[in-house]
Amino acid sequence: MCPYCINIYPTVLYKSVTIETYLYPRYCNNVDMSKIPSNRHPVLNGYNLADAVNQVINTGRVTMGPQVQKFEQAVKDYYDVEEAISFGSGTLAHHAAVKALKTDPNRKETIVVPAFTYRTTRWALQMAGFDIFYEDINPDTYHFDYENMTHYYEYISFMDTYGSICDTDKHDPYLCVIDACHSFGVPRKELRGRGEVFSFNGGKLFTTGEGGMVITNDSDYAESVKEIRNDVARMPELGAALGLDFMDCIDQILAERQDNANYYTENLRSEFVPQEIPIATNNYMYAVRCPHRNLIIRTLRDEVELRYYYYPGLVSRPNTDQVGRSHMVLPNGVNMQREVESVTETLNNLMTGLVDDK
Question: Hey, which CATH number is domain 250-356, 3.40.50.150, 1.10.510.10, 3.90.1150.10, 1.10.1740.10?
Fold first, then answer.
């Protein structure tokens, strides 16, 4: 799947504005769509989007207008928080959330992050003025293990890896942010950290095209985040309109991903060891560790879009390297039940052959 290509069909005509609204990129010329994709979004309501585009044209506001306000309010209502601050990207939202933690912008501080992370994390934190220490992860949960941290620093950027939310209870919430870019939709007993950061890029649970958001209940912190947002990247009105339509079907997205994850868990061979979920997950990605990972991906490269992330890593750590070398992410998304069943059968048959050949 091409996560940045929204190919749309059929065409909807509305007040002389042509909107096409089919979010399965089945007609994308940039990728081979005979393969089972890694992710799939639901079909949205084209008439809602057409109306939103018409409003944008009529108001002349391309950023920070009524669509953005409605989207921010929808997220505030969903999480029952005081502030939801939209951005043009998740990386810039993370950057602002971390930078706003600092009481003295001129003082050099060190922040702890899991080594199992993406390079944009490094950019976001370094540009916020932090030195970074990368902690190793728990090989079962893919989160870093707070109890066994090798270095202690005041500031932490926790990460909800692949949609599984991490435990942040033991650290001062005033001194940490949560990289929740993968975990929108997971219930929380309360807001974690000073703020939580979401990403809405094309490959996430749902998309605004590109975009991100910080949620918080701290009004002073929110004002700092907004000030940074206004200097770096505001969310476009059309992106917010797209996000609003996805919010209308968030329950469907979460339910279907849960069903697919349950099928994998119940039917895959035992050699495929799923990521352990210590608290809760939205099943944004279904990750497994297994022997012969690279051989499986090469063998099925023309049939199934199997992926792995964060390897080679930004730094080398024992558990991070182990998970990076052995894990892969299986297809999951909306209207993918048949594909999930097919992938499960294919992986099981392939693993049977590999085990029998030993």
Answer: 3.90.1150.10
**Contact present, 206 and 8 (Cβ < 8 Å):** no
* Burial grade of 347 (CB within 10 A; 0-12, 13-18, 19 or more): buried
pLDDT tens-digit map of 90-123: 999 999 999 999 877 778 889 999 999 999 999 9
- Rounded Cα–Cα distance for residues 327 and 232 (Å): 35
As annotated, the residues of the chain forming the CATH 3.40.640.10 domain(s) are: 55-247
Inter-residue contact 211 to 191 (CB < 8 Å)? no
**Is the bond into 37 cis (omega within 30 degrees of 0)?**
no
| Helix residue ranges, H only, the chain | 46-59, 66-79, 90-99, 119-127, 219-232, 237-248, 250-267, 293-299, 318-326, 337-356
Is the whole model's pTM more than 0.90, yes or no?
no
Residue pair 84/72 in contact (Cβ under 8 Å)? The answer is yes
Fold (CATH) for 55-247: Aspartate Aminotransferase; domain 2 (3.40.640)
The 327-330 sheet, strands edge to edge: 273-274, 286-289, 327-330
Tokens linked to 18: 């042509």
Indicate the residue type of 224.
S
Composition of the chain by helix, strand, coil, percent to 5: 40, 20, 45
pLDDT tens track for 155-209: 999 999 999 999 998 888 899 999 999 999 998 878 999 999 999 998 899 988 8
